[in-house]
Design brief:
The protein is of the alpha+beta class and 249 residues long. The protein has 8 helices and 8 strands, in the order βββββαααββαβαααα. It is 39% helix and 22% strand.
Length: 249
């Protein structure tokens, strides 16, 4: 964008950082799937015109003006505030993981039209989830779907090392399911049953609507969430603090 120009975009606020006493730096997942950053001047002032429009999780139509180092928010219009997430620790925790993963899987000037719609749908699913178990499913599904889209899809129907259909172990580092023989050579390969592998396949292949309707036990959902956390941490090569917090709630 040439100096002094402005542009319109639609975006999801996936992170906010304090800048001085009154401003915020916003990290945005834009409609084309690229990651942007912009300064929201005065956004930390209570009652300011931007204060309620640039909250974490909000979806916005933005007019961005080019500043010296970062774009500057000139206008912001809410399109979806995801209001049902506010004030609910479990939902905020789940939505924070969605945004954490979105931040780590999007990049400046890297367009991927898959990323913004699935992030938006996952945030809506966090609002719609009936209980903690379904929040676990939503977050696990979002992480696996995005990572699978970007090339890190777990192998679940056969041994990732030899192709044997009789699998009894799972390893994030190895790339998925393992037979007992191959697992002997993989440090940290953990026991896994067919039901758990079936659930993981469902997280990748089912829609959020389907996952929100399926009966799920809390212990099972917690196990799935922990596996999805390890998968994401392995392939994003990052400590996922929001994910860790959700697992501890």
């Amino acid at each position: 964008m040439p100096r002094g120009r402005s542009r319109h975009t639609s975006a999801i606020v996936i992170d906010r950082t304090k800048l001085g006493e009154s401003d915020l730096i916003l990290t945005l997942l834009e409609r084309d799937g690229s990651q942007g950053r912009a300064v929201a001047k005065g956004a930390r002032k209570p009652g300011g015109k931007l204060a309620a429009r640039v909250q974490l999780f909000c979806e916005l139509d933005l007019l961005l003006a080019q500043g010296r180092n970062l774009d500057v928010v000139a206008e912001a219009q809410l399109t979806n505030p995801h209001q049902a997430l506010r004030g609910d620790l479990e939902r905020v925790s789940a939505a924070s993981v969605v945004c954490e993963v979105a931040k780590l899987t999007s990049f400046p000037d890297a367009h991927d039209p898959f990323l913004a719609p699935i992030c938006s749908r996952a945030l809506l699913a966090c609002e719609q989830a009936a209980n903690q178990a379904h929040l676990d499913l939503v977050v696990g599904a979002y992480a696996l779907k995005v990572l699978s889209h970007q090339g890190w899809r777990p192998v679940l129907d056969e041994c990732v090392a030899c192709g044997d259909a009789a699998v009894t172990r799972f390893s994030c580092a190895a790339g998925g399911a393992l037979c007992e023989s191959c697992a002997r050579n993989i440090e940290g390969a953990e026991p896994v049953d067919a039901a758990t592998l079936g659930w993981l396949a469902a997280l990748v292949g089912s829609t959020f609507d389907q996952l929100l309707e399926v009966p799920i036990d809390g212990q099972v959902s917690s196990l799935l969430l922990a596996i999805c956390h390890r998968w994401a941490a392995t392939y994003l090569e990052s400590r996922l603090r929001a994910f860790e917090f959700m697992l501890s709630v």
